[in-house]
Design a protein that fits this description.
Layout (H helix, E strand, L loop, with lengths): L2 E4 L20 E8 H5 L5 H20 L3 E7 L2 H11 L5 E4 L4 H10 L2 E3 L8 H9 L6 H11 L4 E2 L2 E2 L30 H10 L11 H14 L1 H4 L19 H6 L4 H13 L5 H25 L17 H4 L7 H13 L4 H14 L4 H11 L5 H12 L16 H7 L20 H12 L1 H4 L6 H9 L3 H16 L4
Parallel strand pairs: 1-2, 1-4, 2-3, 4-5
Antiparallel strand pairs: 6-7
Bound molecules: iron/sulfur cluster.
């Protein structure tokens, strides 16, 4: 053996990272399941099941293809590598650069040599050069550059379909009685059953835990959901947990799928001619735009970014985030229950329900970030830090987003059917049955009016407060709502 190749649980792909030019004759492969990763936080067990079972499947596949593989359980990744190193003191350890500041430092300090992390489409240097050249880091500008650089949905320097972005066409609520094709169920194998047993849960059938399974999910999306993905991208409903979303983020984020294969497959499908451009563009933007941008910003903004708290949010994490029975708000109760069941809801409830609620209640950004990290199957530091601190709760004073994503019940009522079965009324901002989102939306603007005074994108919203005759009553109700949320009674 000549080298030890360390493979992280988020780099499970033999074509990329440390395994790109691996050879069974000379490379010993090591995966480490750290106690820190399993019990270090209050992780959603569905998330642990997915990550651990995927890693076991991947290790077995490598063994089957002739590699010697060590799957080590240890207190930390470095402890695991130390143990392997005791028996192989002369071998260097090689790894793809990890996806977090913390692990990068820990492995570098331990003497691991890094090779390029090519699990993304944008090299860090390239992103940093782009960011350095910007006055404000607008995702849309980055995305257009990506389209041209990667030559995706571009013809003669112009966007296919005549526009870079079809967002305006992609905001339709669902028509009544709309039916979705079924989703794949993944039959658990022996590995899945064993991992679930160790975690004390039933095997989960929502998520695939192998590369073959992940590819089936991709195919199912392209065959059955891609066409209508765009128009209903922002919709929410109690009738269906996944709508037309691809459900690919877990596999992209643990390495089972690579963004280039997802994009290539989507473009190939689009070329058949029956996928509308707004669906193709909306999906491609998530992969080559958002995903790359968020990862680039995580590294560009640095380690201290996650500690920002510009709006001084100091409320403790609301009990409803950890126990859906602690609220009568139908939208939140449904969303948190879905998360507990599958570790997943789409980006819209993440942003417009969960983050919106954390924002307008003045919840501490770091506590909310920690919760988002723990519960989602596809969460990682690089995804959650910019998405929560920058986009979700505006704790960075607008470094990433020019205005906060605050919304009242009217938006949620328009984009979902949650309000129909709710104790609260989205149109009311005062009184016992006033929608907490509606009350707190106005109260949030009122509380932070000074902060947002110079922000011209907030002018219209702030102007709205002046038109409200009942602002004293709204403030009064907001106090009661916040107290009720704190005690789990609203
Ligand atoms: Fe959510 Fe308010 Fe609608 Fe109830 S009324 S579901 S709390 S938005």
């Amino acid at each position: 053996m000549k080298r030890i190749l360390y493979v992280g649980f988020d780099q499970l792909n033999s074509k990329y990272g440390a395994l790109k030019d691996s050879d069974p004759k000379s490379d010993l492969i090591v995966l480490v399941e750290s106690t820190r990763m399993v019990t270090g936080s209050n992780w959603n067990k569905v998330r642990l099941y997915f990550l651990i079972s995927s890693a076991h499947h991947f290790a077995n596949e490598l063994t089957d293809s002739g590699f010697k593989v060590i799957y080590k359980k240890a207190a930390t990744t470095v402890d695991g590598l130390s143990e392997v190193k005791k028996k192989h003191a002369d071998l260097p350890i090689i790894a793809a650069t990890p996806n977090s500041f913390r692990l990068s430092k820990a492995l570098a300090d331990f003497g691991v040599t890094f090779v390029e992390n090519d699990f993304f489409l944008t090299p860090k240097d390239l992103f940093n050069t782009w960011a350095d050249s910007q006055k404000s880091y607008l995702m849309e500008n980055f995305y257009r550059g990506q389209r041209v650089r990667l030559n995706i949905l571009v013809e003669g320097g112009k966007p296919v379909g005549g526009a870079w972005n079809f967002d305006k066409e992609n905001r339709s609520p669902l028509p009544k009685g709309y039916k979705f094709p079924p989703y794949l169920e993944h039959k658990p194998d022996e590995i899945d059953i064993e991992v679930a047993k160790q975690l004390g849960i039933k095997p989960n059938t929502t998520w695939a835990t192998s590369q073959v399974g992940a590819k089936k999910v991709l195919k199912n999306f392209l065959d059955n959901h891609f066409k209508n993905f765009g128009p209903y991208e922002d919709a929410m409903t109690t009738d269906n947990w996944a709508l037309h979303h691809s459900l690919l983020s877990p596999y992209l984020n643990n390495g089972l799928l690579h963004p280039s294969e997802v994009v290539d497959a989507a473009l190939k499908r689009f070329e058949k001619g029956d996928i509308p451009i707004q669906s193709a563009e909306g999906f491609i933007r998530q992969i080559i735009g958002w995903r790359e941008y968020v990862n680039g910003m995580y590294w560009y903004l640095g380690q201290d970014y996650k500690e920002l708290n510009h709006l001084n949010g100091n409320r403790k994490l609301l009990p409803l985030f950890t126990d859906p029975e602690k609220t009568k708000m139908n939208c939140i109760k449904t969303t948190v229950s879905d998360i507990n069941q599958r570790g997943w809801v789409s980006h819209i409830p993440r942003l417009m329900l969960l983050s919106n609620l954390a924002l307008i209640t003045g919840t501490n950004p770091q506590q909310f970030l920690q919760w988002m990290r723990e519960v989602f199957i596809d969460a990682a530091d690089w995804v959650m830090v910019p998405n929560v601190i920058g986009m979700g709760v505006h704790a960075d004073n607008g470094v990433m987003m020019t205005k906060p994503y605050a919304a009242g019940g009217a938006y949620i009522s328009k984009m979902s059917n949650y309000c129909k079965g709710c104790f609260y009324d989205p149109k009311l901002r005062t009184g016992e049955t006033a929608c907490p989102f509606t009350t707190l939306y106005w109260d949030f603007l009122d509380r932070n009016a000074q902060q947002f005074k110079g922000n011209h994108r907030m002018a219209q919203q702030l102007f709205g407060i002046n038109r409200l005759k009942d602002m004293p009553e709204v403030r009064h109700r907001a106090k009661a709502v916040l107290a009720g949320l704190d005690s789990g009674l609203i």
